[in-house]
Amino acid sequence: MEHEIICLGCPNGCHLLCTSKPGGAVDVTGNTCDRGADYGREELLEPKRTVTAVVRTDSPRVPWISVKTTRPLAKPLIPELLEELYRATAALPARRGDRFIENFRNTGVDVVFTRTASLEEAT
């Protein structure tokens, strides 16, 4: 089976043709760098995405704070992560880079704050 995708591995945006082979191998053509071949294989075998979202806080003055994953997460786990994030409440203060969720579902992926919100700002 063939899949045409645009590579996001570097700024070139190569048009890749990824062909599934027997035994789970993937043949990638159209890439101008090694990252393109890696991206094409991963996109077919185990696609991942970096997740960005907002989380409710315990402060009425700063009702939401932005978060993101530290590494791309397997696509099938993204709805589960978003559900957990949207149910959660973050206690302020929070500093950019502080962990909000550590090692989500034993994937090695953390969720961190992408901005700082101080107590002074929150009260």
Verbal overview:
- The chain has helices spanning 34-45, 78-87, 119-122; strands spanning 2-6, 15-20, 26-29, 48-49, 52-57, 64-69, 73-74, 89-90, 99-101, 111-113.
- It has 123 residues and is α+β, with helices and mostly antiparallel strands.
- It folds into 2 domains: 2-45, no CATH class; 52-122, CPE0013-like fold.
- It has a 5-stranded mixed sheet. A 3-stranded antiparallel sheet has the order 1-2-3, with helices on one face. A two-stranded antiparallel sheet has the order 4-7.
- The relative contact order is 0.16.
- The model has no long low-confidence stretch (mean pLDDT 94).
The topology string of helices and strands comes to: EEEHEEEEHEEEH
For the largest beta-sheet, the strand count, sense and barrel status come to:
5 strands, mixed
Q: Order of strands across the biggest sheet?
A: 8-5-6-10-9
Total of domains: 2
Gyration radius, in Å: 19 Å
In the CATH scheme, the class of the largest domain would be Alpha Beta
Structural class: alpha+beta
Beta-strand residue percentage: 25-35%
How many E-type strands?
10
Helix content: 10-25%
CATH architecture of the largest domain: Roll
Task: Provide the low-confidence segments as ranges.
Answer: none
Number of DSSP helical runs = 3
Through-space gap between termini: 57 Å
Overall geometry: elongated
CATH homologous superfamily title of the largest domain: CPE0013-like
Average pLDDT score: 94
CATH topology annotation of the largest domain: CPE0013-like fold
